[in-house]
Automatic annotation (TrEMBL):
GO CC terms: cytosol
SUPFAM superfamilies for this protein: P-loop containing nucleoside triphosphate hydrolases (SSF52540), TrmE connector domain (SSF116878)
Cofactor note: Binds 1 potassium ion per subunit.
Organism name: Acetonema longum DSM 6540
Protein name: tRNA modification GTPase MnmE
Major subcellular site: cytoplasm
Length: 470
């Protein structure tokens, strides 16, 4: 970690500045400064009431006044200035936040003045990057910051906050400590062969490796749920025209997002909407009704509907119980083969003209739910089916860290591979130093999650995905 700080030291000597609030108009906008000259730069611009200066403001106190152009003395905007002195700030550096009116013109003008006074524009994620490099956050906690910002439901927010508070970090650090103890034990046995402790060392290490593998596998078991809560469950609604697909989207989203008519082929393109199902974010795609058509535009919609199935995590297949099954229905049913799906038999409020047994063979063990979208009956069973599918009936939010980051998942899989190699080495009776090499590789790999053993190029890539000002 010390080497990383040294690698980035040239950029950390600068004082950075950025607009920290979202683009657009709002009641309040914030320009944030961080770095060794933050107080000096803000002091050139701020004129408090009764000529109060930045240096007189205590940490965590706000002062009211004006931001002025030092060259002309002209006021740019009235503002509140909040001072946070190092090391008790987000970045562990001197930080000043200028809170002004939330229009783009005053914000950009104040940002421009901070640059003229000696700051430079911050890179994406550079404030959080400095928090990481200065030891306030480890890398997995820093990555959780963007998950908090992008959280789509209470459940995804709860997961992200848990990671921000170190739920994953603590587990990983615990595993690394166990692996380090194994490495020390093996190296002691290598350095003092006359003590004849080889057999004892190997037995103890083998048991410890198996124990670590149990924890790694348990963390990987949360990955599917974690990614869904982070990214949203890609859900595609399919069916022939006029079975109730658009009505289902409207019912799930609670708004008239899609046009609903009795005319077949009303939906001609894909409509996308995020839906919250008991804390689970669904990225729902309502597709064109699948059928053979001579209409060129509708035909394009049908092809896009079929293509969307390739990216689907969940398929909601809608059938109409009040009309006979058609060739189009049976064609759509074939799309469920080898995929996660739920069959929704709609219009259960009307007399049924076919029996569910007629489709059982084509859908295998796929769950079937009868419902009436128009009357709202059966939607609760659909929601519960989605919850059961995502959580598999076993995961409780808040119990330890949920792994939701693709980078973390890949690292855990690689660490698992090294640990399994160590066990194979033990079983083959290989020398202790060979066992130690595999365990050390797992220890180093897990350090990439927290940032203890990671190159600066990867760190730059991670923080480049953040928004500017965070």
């Amino acid at each position: 970690m010390k080497a990383l700080v040294q690698a980035f030291q040239h950029s950390m000597d600068d004082t950075i500045s950025a607009i920290a609030t979202a683009p657009g108009e709002g009641g309040i906008g914030i320009v944030r400064l961080s770095g060794p000259a933050a107080l000096v730069i803000a002091g050139k611009l701020f004129r408090g009431i009764k000529d109060r200066r930045i240096q007189a403001i205590k940490s965590y106190q706000a002062a009211y006044g004006n931001i002025v152009d030092p060259d002309t003395g002209q006021a740019v905007d009235e503002a509140l200035v909040l001072v946070m002195r190092n090391p008790h700030s987000y970045t562990k550096e001197d930080v000043v936040e200028i809170q002004c009116h939330g229009g783009m013109v005053p914000l950009r003008r104040i940002l421009e003045l901070t640059v003229q006074a000696g700051a430079r524009i911050a890179e994406p994620g550079e404030f959080t990057k400095r928090a990481f490099l200065n030891g306030r956050l480890d890398l997995s906690q820093a990555e959780a910051v963007i998950d908090v910002i992008r959280a789509k439901t209470d459940a995804s927010l709860k997961m992200a906050v848990g990671q921000l508070n170190g739920a994953v970090s603590q587990k990983v650090q615990g595993l690394r400590q166990e692996l380090l103890a194994m490495i020390a034990h093996l190296e002691a046995a290598i350095d003092f062969p006359e003590e004849d402790i080889d057999a004892v060392a190997v037995d103890r290490v083998q048991a410890s490796v198996n124990q670590v593998l149990v924890t790694v596998n348990a963390m990987l078991a949360t990955a599917s749920t974690g990614q869904i809560l982070r990214e949203g469950l890609a859900t595609v609604i399919i069916g022939k025209p006029n079975v109730g697909k658009s009505s289902l989207l409207n019912a799930l989203s609670g708004q008239n997002r899609a046009i609903v008519t009795d005319i077949p082929g009303t939906t001609r393109d894909i409509i996308e909407e995020y839906v919250n199902i008991r804390g689970i974010p669904l990225r729902v795609l309502d597709t064109a009704g699948i059928r053979d058509t001579a209409d060129a535009v509708e035909q394009i919609g049908v092809e896009r509907a079929k293509a969307s199935l390739e990216q689907a995590d969940l398929i909601l297949l809608v059938l109409d119980a009040s009309t006979p099954l058609t060739t189009e229905d049976r064609q759509v049913i074939t799309f469920l083969t080898g995929r996660k799906g739920i069959v929704l038999v709609n219009k259960s409020d009307l007399p049924a003209v076919w029996d569910i047994a007629e489709i059982q063979t084509g859908i295998g063990g796929t769950r079937i739910i009868s419902l009436s979208i128009q009357q709202g009956s059966g939607l609760d069973r659909l929601e519960q089916a989605i919850v059961d599918m995502v959580y598999s009936g076993s995961l409780i939010l808040g119990e330890g860290g949920i792994v939701n980051n693709v980078r973390h998942i890949m690292i855990l899989r690689q660490a698992k591979s090294h640990l399994e190699a160590a066990l194979a080495t033990i079983c083959q009776g290989m020398p202790l130093d060979c066992i130690s090499i595999d365990i050390r590789a797992a220890w180093e790999k897990l350090g990439e999650i927290t940032g203890d053993t990671l190159g600066e190029d990867i760190i730059d890539k991670i923080f480049s995905e953040f928004c500017i000002g965070k």
